[in-house]
Amino acid sequence: MMCLGSCRRAWATIAIGLPLLAGGPVCAEAPAPAREPGGTVSEAIDGDTLRLNDGATLRLVGIEAPKPPLGRRDGRPWPIADRARAALAELALGKSVTLVYGGAREDRYGRRLAQVYLADGLWLQGELLRRGLARVHTVEDNRALAAAMLEEERGARAARRGLWALNVYRIRRPDELGADADSFQLVEGTVLTAAVTAGRGYLNFGADRHSDFTVVVPAKARRLLREAGIDVAALAGRHVLVRGWIMLRDGPMIELTHPEAIELMEE
After folding, report:
1. Any idea where the domains of the chain sit in the sequence?
2. Cβ of 18: how many Cβ atoms within 10 Å?
3. pTM for the complete prediction?
4. Rounded Cα gap, residues 44 and 254, in angstroms
5. 53-56: long-range contacts, CB 8 A cutoff, minimum separation 24
6. Does pLDDT of 4 surpass 60?
7. What is the tens place of the pLDDT at every residue in 22-47?
8. Assigned CATH topology for domain 171-264
């Protein structure tokens, strides 16, 4: 399978350690990447997780594919979980992979965390995002290639490919999150008020902070956003897209830990 131009550009960018652009004006400085052979893929466990021939489990860092149970309270897989796993198996099963580390190398479950490339240069994260079989989900200690991943996601979203054609994966409004606790969501809306209290930032999307959607920005994340050109206290009235896990804390809440998890939509 041919690799998209953006997939090859992503490889070139991380390979030389250039700064990586994320949504809107956000810019994250990529650490010097570490590359190493990953071995051969023996199994696709789900839509973003592989098993290698040495028994190691490999998580395709930076994306969230549909998979069971993905936070569903009834324990059932989200729609097209099987399709996402089958696509990853089709792309990678029996093939040798190269791992590129742009942050933390392992999660608390002992899984390797890497950007993953096939011998022909195909970037697995980029291809799954392009097909609409995953959403971008970067984390504070693993933010490499965020701009390239967001670019692929936006293209699939605009074309309504894969999961983007399904209502269950739609971008949420701030006023419709009551049933989404303990799930990963994208939320788009206008910030009503913005404040900083005791070092923490608060973006309120409704008049009642005890029931309406709020984005909480810890002090460390505020510094990261400021370095990226975003002043949390100045976001009132701005139209934004945020992504993260929905928690219930006096209403639905997302804790924003790094700049790539927020996009200033008008820019």
Report:
1. 5-165, 171-264
2. 11
3. 0.84
4. 30
5. 56/112
6. no
7. 344 333 344 456 789 999 999 999 99
8. OB fold (Dihydrolipoamide Acetyltransferase, E2P) (2.40.50)
Instruction: Report the Cα 242 to chain-centroid distance in Å.
Output: 10
Helical spans, DSSP H, in 50-173? 81-92, 124-130, 146-159
Question: Quick one: which of 184, 176, 177 has its CA closest to 139?
Answer: 184
Q: Count Cβ atoms within 10 A of the Cβ of residue 142 and give its class: 0-12 exposed, 13-18 middle, 19 or more buried.
A: buried
Do the Cβ atoms of 25 and 267 come closer than 8 Å? yes
Q: Are 182 and 245 in contact (CB under 8 A)?
A: yes
**What would the two tokens of residue 170 be?**
């739609």
Cis peptide before 259 (omega within 30 of 0): no
- The one-letter amino acid code at 159 reads A
Distance of CA 49 to the CA centre of its chain: 15
Instruction: Tokens for 77, please give them.
Output: 């897989």
Is the domain 5-165 a CATH 2.40.50.90 member? yes
Looking from the CA of 173 toward its CB, the CA atoms found within 13 Å total 3
Q: Quote the CA–CA distance of 69 and 102 in Å, as a whole number.
A: 28
